[in-house]
Amino acid sequence: MSEPAAMTVAEGIRTAAESLSAFSETARLDAELLMADALGIERSDMLLRAMRDAVPPSFAGLVERRSRHEPVAHILGHQEFFGRRFKVTPDTLIPRGDSEVLVEAALELKPGAACVLDLGTGTGALLLSVIAETGGRGVGTDRSPAALGVAHDNADLLDLEDRVRFHLLDWRQEGWAGELGRFDLILCNPPYVEESAALDPDVRDHEPHGALFAGVDGLDDYRILIPQLRGLMEDGALAILEIGHEQAEAVSTLAQTHEFAVSLRRDLANRPRALILT
Ligand code: GLN
């Protein structure tokens, strides 16, 4: 009796990509990453084996989870950001490609940053990416103990644990800035989504709302943070804030009110994505 012809990895990827393309703009990549996970190998090694190897049994379950809009980063437990792999859980925002522009700006404008502060660090992706390149030290804060656990794990994974400290801190509470000290670079990707925004189900149902939503106009956290930044900055320091692509004007105005000079950086899609405050 002959076995039914098993689907090859290549065919499995193609079939899964077809079904995920109903809603995912990255269906092919999703399917490849899930297949590599099912095989327990890197995606680059997998592509070489795709023509001859059979689909492993766990692949169907992974595609099934993705079909229910669970983000690939949550299924895999990690996400690439600025060339490094970061552990991700549902307790943190998934690092986005758009946020890499903050790291680029930091390395370009402050390549020698010795002391970096990351407010609302989440996975630690911004902070750890910058200090890995500059060789400097850093402090990350978050109001979520679970997120700080993930940031710690990422510092360990990247062998940066000796150069970072993490603090549990909620900037919506009085006196938060007091004991942090001063820094020559501040990074911050605060929550900035309008309360009423209709988010993609992948985001809405799987990522922490506390890291996303910021009041009626999405500006609540900038209103709290911007007036406090000066007290956290050394002479000549700069602060780099991520913004929603329609918030450049509102946040710039707020920063100018507090006597900052402001310049803008755009993301890969050429949308406004970060403001640099000096
Ligand atoms: N860029 C994220 C999104 O649109 C929002 C990130 C944030 O609020 N800091 O899903």
Automatic annotation (TrEMBL):
UniProt: substrate binding residues: 189-192
Annotated Gene3D superfamilies: DNA helicase RuvA subunit, C-terminal domain, Vaccinia Virus protein VP39
One Gene Ontology term from the biological process aspect of the record: methylation
CDD domains in the record: AdoMet_MTases (cd02440)
Location of the Methyltransferase domain: 116-189
EC number(s) stated in the UniProt entry for this protein: 2.1.1.297
Catalyzed chemical reaction(s): L-glutaminyl-[peptide chain release factor] + S-adenosyl-L-methionine = N(5)-methyl-L-glutaminyl-[peptide chain release factor] + S-adenosyl-L-homocysteine + H(+)
Matching NCBIfam families: hemK_fam (TIGR00536), RF_mod_PrmC (TIGR03534)
Its job: Methylates the class 1 translation termination release factors RF1/PrfA and RF2/PrfB on the glutamine residue of the universally conserved GGQ motif.
Protein name: Release factor glutamine methyltransferase
Organism annotation: Qipengyuania vulgaris
